[in-house]
Request: fold
Amino acid sequence: MSKERPNFEYEEKYRLEGYKYIAGIDEVGRGPWAGPVVAAAVILPAECQKMAGINDSKKLSEKKRNELDLVIREVSVGFGIGEASCEEIDEIGLQPATFLAFSRAIEELENVDYLLIDGMQWKKCKLPNQSIIQGDAISMSIAAASIIAKVYRDNLMCDFHKDFPDYGFDKHKGYGTKQHIEALQKVGICTLHRKSFKPIKAFTK
Reply:
């Protein structure tokens, strides 16, 4: 595959094999101590060879992500967003919860016959699929999914901040920052915290 990133080479490869609705899928929120893990699945049109600025969401500014989020939603053939809650993460584990979010995102799509998955192997996936290491920097569809997922989860954590203002969720989005640790030391955990995560266990004794 070409080193020009991200691009449509994987999408074109599988279209030539007869697949029509190829979705890129990515997740955000595996590392935070609070909030859900969120997945997005995006199908871009075949003629959409270039979308200016599309890249791995981690490499984009918040302003650029928000701009691209609107564009992707408008031009996509379809997109879906799925969540797995902090309770589900605690109950079944982070990896299974991530795949649960994947499934829920895919269920939002009207048509999908092939998946391009960022990074991880999804062995129980019922659809034909290709796992791509650092896929959000390689596949345009996965990069688009990474943006949709990131913007959605960031907005969600900002909304949670209104209900739990002590933690600064609008700033760190649930990650283990100094501000977050200090808030935990002061007020303890809330219902959004992942009790199965080692740093949080220290505050649940």
Summary: The chain has a mean pLDDT of 93. The domain at 9-201 is CATH 3.30.420.10 (Nucleotidyltransferase; domain 5). Helices lie at 9-16, 62-75, 86-92, 94-107, 140-163, 169-172, 178-187, 198-201. The CA atoms of residues 99 and 122 lie 7 Å apart.
